[in-house]
């Protein structure tokens, strides 16, 4: 009986014949914490009486959720991270370096076939490059820092077969929103989501990150894809680390399989206050919006910025609307400067902020006021997600956000493409 990608990676890393629902202790290839979770992990590390991390070259801490620090108390937490990183000799990505989930693949820390944990729920992002990556709590992070190992319950796998080609004006964000709306927010709880098919193969690696990033929004533990030629070429551009891609066996056993034809998919929007409250953009078109956000670990990469800039070039955002743009990393921001993309955003009336998570997580850089509608490329729209539980968050692609800030209301981006 064959194995899924998840079963194969956990078998290799544990040295066991791992099958769905087995409990294994597995070796970790990389461990990550961000500024919302690392201080608690450092405290747990001390409480466990540890002195040294298992391998400094396999650990990074990233200051991205509140960067630069908006509060004195947060500054103290950042200080703790900097001191711990210096003491242990681990990687530290400080303010302005970018979002953790952009940095780990971009900086070559994770490669196909790896097993990775991060104290952030969207660690599942790296599944797009064939990495079993998943979010953990701060105490589990501390255990990983010390031992280089962690226990896992091997997940069952939910296979998504995506046939056809996405139509013009429809993007990977629309696709993953549609899937979440279809299977619901708990439709893949504790499963490995495995995405395959012509529609996935057609996507760029950057677009695939968007899909794997939001696997957690359907309850999945990870969002895995095979490493095809596009992935292998992308990874080789970012690191010289050796790696061994993992593919599912032809006779792998899946808990669920769903097939879709995406050829007629329309732009999608997730309405407040749940990510699975999804509809075609036409059903909410005309809804007034006061703020747009382009960025985050879901859609702050170069491809996303180029799509939005194409729509905004030579135009001005609506007088009653604000636009916040947060590139996913320093490298992305520099490339956007070189291509003139930031100039397009700024001339259109946008506020370009430090690479980081602030607007999405609601720590700073764009907290909405009571009753305001925000349209965002982020991955969550729960009450209070952006720092105000009396605001309303709609999720959409960078194209839909760009079109909407031009008109001041939710707008089908195909009108501008």
Automatic annotation (TrEMBL):
Q: Which Pfam families match?
A: Aconitase
The free-text note explaining how the cofactor binds reads: Binds 1 [4Fe-4S] cluster per subunit.
Alphabetical UniProt keywords: 4Fe-4S, Amino-acid biosynthesis, Branched-chain amino acid biosynthesis, Iron, Iron-sulfur, Leucine biosynthesis, Lyase, Metal-binding
Entries under CDD domains matching the protein? IPMI
Q: Which GO terms describe its molecular function?
A: 3-isopropylmalate dehydratase activity; 4 iron, 4 sulfur cluster binding; metal ion binding
Positions bound to [4Fe-4S] cluster: 297, 357, 360
The domain of life for this entry's organism is Bacteria
Which residues are in coiled coils?
Answer: none
Describe which pathway this protein belongs to, using the record's wording.
Answer: Amino-acid biosynthesis; L-leucine biosynthesis; L-leucine from 3-methyl-2-oxobutanoate: step 2/4
In UniProt terms, what function does this protein have? Catalyzes the isomerization between 2-isopropylmalate and 3-isopropylmalate, via the formation of 2-isopropylmaleate.
Q: Quaternary form?
A: Heterodimer of LeuC and LeuD.
- Protein's name according to its UniProt entry: 3-isopropylmalate dehydratase large subunit
List the source organism: Thermosyntropha lipolytica DSM 11003
The encoding gene is leuC
